[in-house]
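assembly run, all chains below
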Amino acid sequence: MTKEKKLSITIDNRKVAVKPNITILQAAREHNIYIPSLCTLEPLPSYGACRLCIVEVDGLRGFPTSCTTPVDDGMVVRTDTAEIRTLRQEVLKLLLSEHPASCLFCTEHDECKDYQGTIRKVGVTTGCRYCPNDSLCELQTITEKIGLTETSYPVYYRGFPVEKSDPFYDRDYNLCILCGRCVRVCNDIRMNGTLSFKERGKQTTIGAALDRTHLDAGCEFCGACVSVCPTGALSTKVSKWYGKPDGETKTTCVYCPVGCELLLQIKNNETIDVFPNYDSTIDQGLLCVKGRFAIPEYVASPERLATPQRMTPLGYEDISWDDAIDEAAEKLSGINPEDVLIVVSPQLTNEDLFVAERFARELIGTDQIMSVLITDMREETVSFLNLASASSPFNVIDTADTILTIGFDSTYGFTPIGIKIKKAAKAGVNLTTLSVHESNLDIVSGETFQMNVTKWPALLDSIMGKMPGNGKGTKLKPLNKVVVIGAEVIFSPKRGAVFEKIVEMKDRFGWKVIVAHPYTNLMGLLAMGAFPGIKRGEIVSDGTKSTGPAVEDPLSAMDLARHRKVVYLIGEVPFENLPECDFLIYQNALSVKSTRKPDLVLPSSLFTELSGTIISAEGRILPIRKATDPYGKSMPDWQIISKISEKIKSGALKYSSISAIQTDIKKQVKSLSDVKKRLEFRKISAKTSGKGRTGKRLSDPKSSRKPWEEKYRGIALKDVVSGMLVIEERRRHE
Amino acid sequence: METMRKFERVCEIVDRNGRNPSRLIPILQAVQAEYRYLPEEILTFVATSLGIPPARVFGVATFYSLFTLKPKGKYLIRICNGTACHVKGSMGLYKTLSDKLNLGDGRETSDDMLFTLETVNCLGACGLAPAMVINEEVFGQVTSQRAAAIIDEIITREAQYESDSSRIE
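ok done. output:
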């Protein structure tokens, strides 16, 4: 690669070397020269709407906007002359003539602050509060930088009603300065196109087609518009009046296996909001509604468990951790391994799963580590695991020449994948969508098939038939064909036949597979061996071609109809398929609404309150970082398990910190030591036992008939996050 | 059935323009010429067939005052209220017509969907002030009496046409 030749330009009498093909504004920012701008925002293309970034350039007439003028060798630029300053002030005054400006120009602005506290016990603040963005506002910052202290124009208040009918965010277009960032991010970055400018002149506002609500207009509620708004016009419902956050923690989303980066906004030891990270190499800041909006309400839910509880004849009583650990240890120590069932959630961290696996295998001596995916996938568990562990990294979409989506919709989840597909389709890549209901990708696809799942295998056959070279003839050039499978097939009772076809596409025709499933840390769960028949580290490939484990059908091996003495649920909710038991231990973050009443309740901390790692669907090891203190007396799952183990057998599984566990993981699971590398997984095959099915089949699988829901640790997001309920209802209607 | 026919016509218009998103304005003009306004479902249909978001089509349709999202009458009367016409008493003319057609208070279209009465800011025919345009036909130096007479003539013609067509049936 040849090194790009740098250009030499002069900005404010400073000679600087800059890259070619960038704008004056970008060049200035690279060299820390401040030029005010309201409409420019990386990664959006330049727009030139706000006119605040005007500069003087020798040889160019007038005052060009620096965000739209490319640099040229030998260019002489002045960014801060008296004339430019006056002009900018004038531009800003005009901008502010349609923006309530009392937060900027009120004469009592500073004096008022001293009198805002009250002696009342409730959280009341006196003083003006008409904009939720006070102190976070880019317009405020720029007004200060430009040095505008008063305006000579009357402020025209447009008097639009505040739009509050949509979930997650409110819109007050009286505060809008029409910079167009939201319209551009919605159309150009998110490829969604919900927003557009409406009307003309002073009636101009921003909104959806035909003045519909955002929900009706097909909004994904990704919140990108809210994140980029420089004013208080768009604001998140749950966090709008919190004011400026006092900290930010970069972590990984645990709602699905994409593993998007999140910037948690922290105030007073609470997670109040979540921002995307546009520099992320995993998701490019393309969060979905769950990551963007469904976290603060979940972690601060009124259903959070604060203390351990024990069931008594009179109901639940709060007990101390010591008593709770004693009780759990007493029930579990010396127990026959046959009489225990341990259930782990695939949404736990690697560290939790590692400790849980050691607890089950080493301390209790059982291989029966149950997880929800076994009862979801039933007889197809092994073929599902096979596909999921052969999943390709998402960037295969960027180089694909053919994309097929099966039962996949990226409106409210998997948006980084969905947007990659949309981009590819717009660039002319052959996209075919196959689904039962309408998919959000249908509009960009070349061919759309909407039909019942039973007809899919035949259709997939015909797609494969169209492919050239069934093993005969000339050697094929490497194929760039990608198939993305989503919830509609994964949760269909008829998935088995479709899975078979996809395996055939993968193995015989070289299709790359991406499985958009909801089990966040599925790969971590398998890598840690927290699954019956799979040993610790066994499925992580060490680069050799060795085959992976052969697994007996876990559902029949588990025999869920058999009565157990103790069932220990770790981050999962008692589901319908659980066996009868004498003692039910429920370890989770939120209380449970279920007919099965746990005998012992242990409060867990959530992912914003602890550190750890997960393995994403792409095989990347991603960090979870602690942002706030644990809620109430809650503890991370690994810590609770470790304490119980310590009680059962002194010295067993004694871990005092997350780094101690990580050291142990690296020792035991060799391939995990190189965290930079993307992990590859070995093939899991089905073990055919001569005996046939020994376990009783579940008689009435209620869970498989229930429609699939977005869940975190066994609890439906719609039951905890109010906006998710609205979205879920809409999904039902479609 | 009615809607099927409607979309057939739009399909033709969109196809005639090569399904090219940059021909959105000519497409909307043709659609409006067909229906005298832009029905909502047609806007969505146009967006889908051009592969652009409905919001973009809506944005364009609301930007230009030429386009209307409300149904208009068969005869669109535009009274010029530019400076010259205003001085020559165009508002009196407007008042006469709106009384005659029983319009006003925000109502612009008569109940029988025959007339829509609007003012425009300048027709560029200041020499003919006060000027009035009915559909494509320009009338100059219009007095209230003449305007009323023109309207009456249209009403008679329409009534004649109505009875003719009922006789044929």
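The interface with chain A takes residues 40, 43-44, 47-48, 51-59, 62-65 of chain B (CB under 8 Å).

Residues 144-168 of chain B form the longest helix (25 residues).

not gonna interpret more than that til we talk
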